[in-house]
Fold this protein.
Amino acid sequence: SMGGAVLYASPDGLMLLTPGNSKNLTEAIFDRDDWQALGPTTIHAYGHDNKYVAFHAAVTLGGVSYTGFVYDFSSGQFIRHNVSGITAGYADLRNDQLYLVNASKQVVAWGAGTTNLTGKWRSKIYALPQVTGFSCAQVEAEAYDAGLKCRLYRTDPGARAQHATSLSNEVLTSRAPFRLEAKQGRDWEVELDVTQEVFNLCIAQSMDEIATA
């Protein structure tokens, strides 16, 4: 129960119930089969800072194991996480803190760790009207460290398969624009490994385009 509503994991998705309405919050993110793959009957969740913080049985997607997710009501974002071994939790409204019980039966505070986990964000596929090449890019972030990496994916004009080009685990150390390998494609994706908030990502055909963006 949070924000004047009740949430529960149904067989079809994460449901929001209010006095006058019901809504499947994950309808645009999951079809029924993909949601069932998460194991909705194993989900236990807690409301904190206008977020639905959930834990479930481990699932493997794209070679990565996930054990839960966070649904952010403010932004509508669905963020997977791999915080494992959580067996119980309690949202303390007086202290504005979510407390969890870990695999060692210790009570820990959500978000109180001293080191940020590394997150992975991947854009949608941008299908351009014609084959295009990009020569440079820029990432503006709150801070730069070894955890901030960027990769660029494209569809080769002569093949159906998607191939990594230009950036492969490129460590970004500043907001300065950087050069990309000269490759062309029609369908493009960008992937970031992040430990800090990223404000802006720009990919362009020339440095002048970035300067005036």
In short: The CA atoms of residues 134 and 204 lie 5 Å apart. Helices lie at 32-37, 207-212. The two ends are 43 Å apart (CA to CA).
